Amino acid sequence: MPHSEPRAWETVLNHLEQQLVSGQLAPGQRLPGERILAADLGVGRTSVREALRVMEALGLLSAQTGSGPTAGAMIVSRPTGGMSMLMRMQVAAQSFPVADVVRTRLVLETEVMRALAESDPAPDLAHAEQLLDAMDDAGLAAHEFLVLDARFHIAMADAAGNQVIAAMMTGLRDSIESYVLAGAPLGTWPTTCARLRCEHRGLLEAVRAGDADLARSRIVDHIRGYYAESLGRDHTRPDDPGTEHSPPRV
């Protein structure tokens, strides 16, 4: 099959990608105006706008309307939003089964725990501990607790220093959070909440003790227990009956 010619907005996108790779564009730098880009690339301003909207949706661009020094489009430094949106949409469209997403999270978080426990010097876990302190508030609703829960896991990934893993984990968490919230066992929530608090503290203890095996074991048990209870079965085991079925509708 012959390759189709790229559409005009794809030409703009490819041009900006090449400039990022070459270093001509960098995070924090503002893009040339629409008129300049359109003239340089021989495309219409509508095509430039379409390309910039794609980059903004992917979390690569922050656009401000109006005039002045803060107006225009700027490359952002940590584009986690695009990955999060992609994961959410793929799970919603059943392209990525929930089981696969959960197992991938398990792979990533066991690596995070290993890296943290073996880190020399010891990692800075102050932000993660602050989030756990906030989660001790007995007045938190379930959804408020789970938001802090997600931030705790991302904070641990950030502390491990691998930005790719941190970005992927953000997307993975967000992509299945709606299913978790819909299936959360609210009738037993106080018990579940207390268990999660204890398990989170246990993760920090294992990391601070420098015990990589214990940290990995605890995160495996934590993730398996969390999704088995929230989604009704263990999505981390390949032989679990029904794990290859379509994700639940919410």
From TrEMBL:
Pfam families assigned to the protein according to its UniProt record, in alphabetical order: FCD, GntR
The name this protein goes by in its record: FCD domain-containing protein
Keywords on record: DNA-binding, Transcription, Transcription regulation
Stretch list, region Disordered: 231-250
Q: Locate the HTH gntR-type domain: which residues?
A: 6-78
What the entry lists under InterPro entries is as follows:
GntR_C, TF_FadR/GntR_C, Tscrpt_reg_HTH_GntR, WH-like_DNA-bd_sf, WH_DNA-bd_sf
